[in-house]
Amino acid sequence: MTSPTERRWQPGWPCSLAAALAPYRHGAGDPTYRVAPDGAHWRGIRTPVGTATLRLSADEGGGTVSGAAWGAGAEWALDTMPRLLGAEDDPSGFRPRHDVIERAWRRHGHLRIGASGLVMESLVPAVIEQKVTGQEAFGAYRGLVRRFGEPAPGPGADLGLLVQPSPTTLRSIASWDWIRLPVDRARSTAVLRAARVADGLERAGARGATELDRALCSVPGIGRWTSAEVRVRSQGDADAVSFGDYHVARDVGWALTGAEVDDDGLEELLEEYRPHRHRVQRLVVAAGLGRPRRGPRMAPRVHLPK
Question: What's residue 299's pLDDT?
Answer without folding.
Answer: 47
